[in-house]
Design goal:
It is built from 14 helices and 21 strands. It is α+β, with helices and mostly antiparallel strands.
Length: about 425
């Protein structure tokens, strides 16, 4: 059966032409109709325009049929001459995102483990999937970012995720699969309408299509427009950030307060996203905006899962949750080798200027420690923190290096802030 004359094959050829020269392509293969067809079309394209092609199957371990899916994927890949890699994913159904959400998290973690940075992974989602995702986001009360649903291209920790079939209907994919006499497996869980996406697919969307035959295409178009709007809002927020400080982790409260509430919310979400910190729920964000009006000396702290915001000296700090060193923690160290700490690996060495070996003990700062600085004498570390304008929550994570009864350095796992006379970082 000829493939190259097919409109769908031409779509895949164009997607292949847009991948970086010399780079191969991965295809996420579940064994269902959509991914089986995508792999078949990709194999044909990569034969005519030689590129390395590999398939990746994620075994979730959630149902007995999972082994059958894997066997089918192996048969398909053997027939097409495509190497198959299988990743087994652990789905934590107790983590609070529901079965569908946790399976998705596990699946993307498997993608990141197997697909290398700079490589491209093709996913087989199509226009009907996009319509379902848009409706799910709307029912959650999502804004433009959520309503943008699935982007055609996105970055996953340095990997390029591409959905080349996103403008194609499932009906068109099924017709092409039948024309090519493809075999695929049906996931029994796809018929379970207790799952939100399946309810929309089998009950809600067919009902909408009875009244509005182009409902699926219209919803997918709305998702694309929402995605464009979200992109424009991100540009707008980036301009506000550049005007205010340029630092996504620290915003001047006075300047932030002069923005309208929607622009404040947008800017805060933008800054958190720039740092890889999740945005707070709407109620927590509203609480944060209210507390920004507190008096200047108020200690404002608003936290949520995966992030927190603090106000100090007229600035709003947006950051991941701050950890402190356990008061009882101690570690012996020679000053040379990297050493793990509860806050991460200590990578900055500490040596005596006279070259003699050192027997050091690392401990948390508990208060009252003093450091003898060259040309300044003994200085209280608390006062040094004030000189450095170190926010109070960062002081709780300071490491103190002791040599016998004497403090010889203070700093963080990423580096030393000050060393005593006779000592230096290396």
């Amino acid at each position: 059966m000829s493939l190259s004359s097919s409109p769908l094959q031409r779509t895949i050829d164009r997607a292949l032409a847009q991948t970086p020269p010399g780079r191969g392509v991965w295809v996420a293969l579940s064994g269902g109709l959509d991914s089986a067809l995508l792999l078949t079309l990709a194999a044909d394209a990569c034969r005519r325009y030689p590129r390395p092609l590999r398939a990746l199957h994620v075994h979730h371990g959630l149902q007995a049929a999972g082994d059958d899916f894997e066997r089918h994927c192996r048969r398909l890949c053997a027939r097409l001459g495509v190497p198959l890699y299988v990743e087994r994913a652990a789905v934590d159904v107790s983590a609070g995102r529901g079965l569908e959400g946790e399976a998705r998290v596990a699946r993307y973690a498997a993608f990141a483990r197997r697909v290398g940075a700079g490589e491209t992974l093709w996913l087989a989602q199509h226009r009907d999937d996009q319509a379902e995702t848009f409706l799910l986001a709307a029912l959650r009360g999502a804004g433009p970012r959520g309503l943008g649903a699935m982007p055609a291209v996105r970055n996953l920790e340095g990997r390029c995720l591409v959905r080349p079939l996103l403008d194609v209907s499932r009906a068109a994919l099924k017709a092409e699969s039948s024309r090519l006499r493809l075999c695929w497996v049906e996931d029994p869980s796809n018929a379970d309408t207790r799952l939100d996406r399946n309810f929309l697919r089998h009950r809600a969307l067919p009902l909408l299509a009875e009244r509005w035959p182009v409902a699926g295409a219209s919803l997918a178009r709305s998702a694309r427009l929402a995605g464009e709007a979200d992109g424009l809002l991100e540009e707008f927020a980036a301009e506000d950030l550049a005007r205010l400080s340029g630092d996504p982790g620290r915003l001047p409260v006075a300047a932030l307060s002069r923005l309208s509430p929607p622009r404040r919310r947008l800017l805060i979400r933008h800054c958190l996203g720039r740092q890889g910190v999740p945005s707070p729920p709407a109620a927590r964000l509203a609480t944060l905006l209210e507390q920004l009006e507190a008096r200047r000396d108020a200690e404002v702290r608003v936290s949520w899962e995966g992030g927190e915001a603090r106000v100090w000296r007229g600035a709003l700090y947006l950051l991941a949750p701050v950890a402190s060193l356990p008061a009882e923690w101690r570690a012996e160290w020679d000053g040379r080798a990297s050493i793990p700490t509860p806050l991460g690996m200590l990578v900055s060495e500490l040596v005596r200027e006279d070259g003699r070996p050192a027997a050091l003990v690392l401990a948390p700062r508990l208060g009252g420690e003093r450091l003898r600085l060259e040309g300044r004498g003994n200085r209280d570390i608390k006062r040094l923190c004030q000189e450095w304008a170190l926010p109070p929550w960062e002081r709780a994570g300071l490491l103190v290096a002791w040599h016998g009864e004497r403090v010889v350095a203070v700093g963080r796992p990423s580096g030393w802030l000050a060393c005593a006379e006779g000592w230096r970082p290396d």
